[in-house]
Amino acid sequence: MYHAIVFLPLIGFLISGLMGRQIGARGAEWITSGLLVIAAILSWIAFFTVGFGQGEVFTVPVMTFIQAGGVDVDWAFRIDTLTVVMLVVVNTVSALVHVYSIGYMHHDPHRPRFFAYLSLFTFAMLLLVTADNLVQMFVGWEGVGLASYLLIGFWYKKPSANAAAIKAFVVNRVGDFGFILGIFGVFVLFGSINLGTIFANAEGFLPGEGAADAETVLTFLGLSLDKGAALTVVCLLLFLGAMGKSAQVPLHTWLPDAMEGPTPVSALIHAATMVTAGVFMVARLSPIFELSATALTVVTIVGAFTAFFAATVGLVQNDIKRVIAYSTCSQLGYMFVALGTGFYGAAIFHLFTHAFFKALLFLGAGSVIHAVSDEQDMRRMGGLRKLIPQTYWMMIIGTLALTGVGIPGTIIGTAGFFSKDAIIEGTFVAHNAAAGIAFALLVVAAAFTSFYSWRLIFMTFHGKPRAAADVMHHVHESPPVMLVPLFILAAGALFAGLAFSEFFIGHDYTQFWKQALFTLPDNRILEEFHEVPYLVKFAPVLAMLSGLFVAWLFYIRNPARPRELAERHRGLYAFLLNKWYFDQAYDFLFVRPAMRLGRFLWKKGDGWLIDGFGPDGVSARVIDVTARVVKLQSGYLYHYAFAMLIGIAALVTWMMLGSSF
């Protein structure tokens, strides 16, 4: 079964990619989508079998991968609760995105290539989440990077799409460099890259309290590091890789630009693949991260700041997809705060629920864009509520889940209410050094999230139409092939939190997760999480209501107020609209110097030095000499006769002078 779950998307990629012309666009659509639906069904079977069964962690062998020296790596699937949760997330969302794309991409002439790329993306992510060793994980890690490059730049004739694809690829190389250094460090410290061996060795890696162990175990950048410092460095390098893939500040800049790809690609990247890879990796390696309090504090700080930063930028964005993109960046920050505070179950729970409502929001936005003739600027929308009512209600459900609508202390609540609020409450009781400031930033981010989410709804669907008359005349609801995936995702956005909260973060935590995640021996954070004061439980709800009220005040009650406020605070508005000027800073610090250096090496190093004194210089001298020699060949007979006479005279003179001596 597990072989089928992983390899069915690969088969779809090969069929659609290699035989696209033979089977046609329709064949590519239905073959890849059908295989993904089968994989999704099998993933749910695996989820209930493993998550609610009594079995322990086991591996499914595939083949021998690497045998070199002391490194023995087999390609195998590590099957535990964390794996099957990710299988459900990846394959379910991917299957729905495949089906949705049948309608969304029906005008595109390159559909076989598109569906092949989608299936390749899915396979790479499955390779990552089923990895039994760090090398296999890195192969999948790079595979999702490649697939994201291909899909973001799918419309390769569009310059902005090419630029966005290159940006995503280059920024992720920074994080990937840290990740591979971290893998090397893990191998040095634990003597293996197999996860089972690493976790077994990690249990007794650090000396006990009061023990003196200053032995150098790792040298990094000229520094001699003992076990504790080496672990911190390795964890930070691994986290650098997670920052790149999961778009944490300062490696977040590629994520909003990734909106240049087709909308189904955005849904897949933001809900199930690519950005969830970093969260999964830190959760998978939680037994290592738990050995370094410093690394966990850094994870918490970065996650909290990213959640706050992305929420502030989302307040003023006008592109409907970019608003949702910054929402993803912010929600990933929540997940990393949970990881940093040791609340690993809450982090994966939010990843699980987030997949449903974020895919719903992106695909709903695609339905809106499809209805208004590919327009993405919310300032040119409005009044769509009655024209596309089914899309409207699906977007409402996604917004309710994202903003965390629910009643604390009851079973009434959307998926986001159960998972996001759990992270905020867990952060309040966490013993991490940065937990206090993280809690405050997450509550503020919750208020901002509510504001920009309802702002999107009000600007898009309410008020007077702001689009051109011909656009409004052609507004239409999406076909069933696009709406059915929205209905399924809406069910998950509403009920996934209620259905699974007891298992992910509740009293059945230990039985559900078993050994898949690191858990404190006394389950301290779980016990304290369930005992937080009511004021803390109501804090995210009050933040959500305040954001909703301000959005209603600005965009329903008094639509002129946002413009007045922006004009009154032009500096702050420009600061947020330009995303805190991160792109401009990177352009000044890295892009322009790199281009100046490249131009210098091109013009002076390659052109003047190498070519000037090398091949081009030699050829130029040969041309000069031959040009002068050619001038001697005039073609006139008397010139040649004269040259012969000169030669004879010179010869006679030489002979006469020679005989006289």
Shape: globular
Strand order of the largest sheet: 1-2
Number of helices: 28
Poorly predicted runs: none
> Major sheet: size, sense and barrel closure?
2 strands, antiparallel
Task: Give the distance, in angstroms, between the N- and C-terminal Cα atoms.
Answer: 105 Å
Describe the protein:
- With 661 residues, this protein is mainly alpha-helical.
- It is 73% helix and 4% strand.
- It is built from 28 helices and four strands.
- The protein has a two-stranded antiparallel sheet. A two-stranded antiparallel sheet has the order 3-4.
- The longest helix is centred in the N-terminal third of the chain and has 32 residues, at 20-51.
- The relative contact order is 0.08.
- The mean pLDDT is 90.
Task: List key phrases describing it.
mainly alpha; two-stranded antiparallel sheet; globular; two-stranded antiparallel ribbon; 661 residues
Blueprint of the fold:
Elements: H1 2-18, H2 20-51, E1 58-68, E2 71-79, H3 81-104, H4 111-129, H5 134-152, H6 159-190, H7 195-202, E3 218-220, E4 223-225, H8 227-245, H9 254-257, H10 263-271, H11 275-284, H12 286-289, H13 293-314, H14 320-340, H15 344-371, H16 389-403, H17 415-429, H18 435-461, H19 469-473, H20 480-504, H21 509-513, H22 524-529, H23 534-557, H24 561-568, H25 570-577, H26 582-613, H27 615-632, H28 637-660
Antiparallel strand pairs: 1-2, 3-4
Helix pairs in contact: 1-2, 1-4, 2-3, 2-4, 3-4, 3-10, 3-15, 3-20, 4-5, 5-6, 6-8, 8-11, 8-13, 10-15, 11-14, 11-15, 13-14, 13-18, 14-15, 14-17, 14-18, 15-16, 15-17, 15-20, 16-18, 16-20, 17-18, 17-20, 17-23, 18-23, 26-27
